Amino acid sequence: MHPAIPRLLDLQTIDQHIAALRAELDAFPKRVRDADMQLTGARNAVTAAREAHTHSLTERKKFELDVRQWKERARKYREQSGAVKTNEAYKALQHEITNAEAEVAKAEDRQLEIMMAGEDSERRLKSAETALSQAERSIAAERKELHTQHAAKKKDLDAALAKREPAIAPIPEDLRVLYERIAKRHHGVALAEARDGQCRGCGMRVLPHILQQLLRDANDELFRCESCGLILYSLEPIPAPNPETGSSSAASSASSSS
Ligand SMILES: [Zn+2]
How many angstroms does the Cα of residue 14 sit away from the middle of ligand 1? Predict the structure, then answer.
């Protein structure tokens, strides 16, 4: 195994941890927005319920006024009917009184309907207000929790970044550059294990003589997968297809050092 491989593997582990933490931290603003959206929904529901209730109160006042006005007219006609001279005029006033009283009855019916509807809209408003205050409490708790989680992740990230410095320091400059370049192209993955004769990065076959080289203790050469380009390493001895002829001595000695 190339002496830099364990260090590159450490670096890759740290970098993947850093990337995961950054992704989680990046997701926080959206999580806060999603929580706030729930609150907006509950607030809108209260606004709509309040408008409906106000409308129903306005309607109720209108019919109350109708009732008063028709009652007032009926009263006036009755007053006038005491002072009329002709039978015709008396009959006409009686007709007006009957009509006004019918209007009073109609307006009272509508007033009753609207009062019942008003009770409904008041109930709906109260329940929307209750839901809003519950949402406010739970969103406040959620925001606090998100804030705590965010602070913890930020701390983890700082710790991971602090570990990166000493991890990268002993790696030669040219290997750092190579590592960064490959990792950038493969979503943070620069190394792949060669196992069971395959590159675990892409599944393509790794030639036996390269597998042997990967396991040799004194190996200063880096091998990359011909197919995906990842830096290959091996942690296990290669199972020799035929133990009679296979030269497994190098493999078994390498396994103890890795
Ligand atoms: Zn590969």
Answer: 22
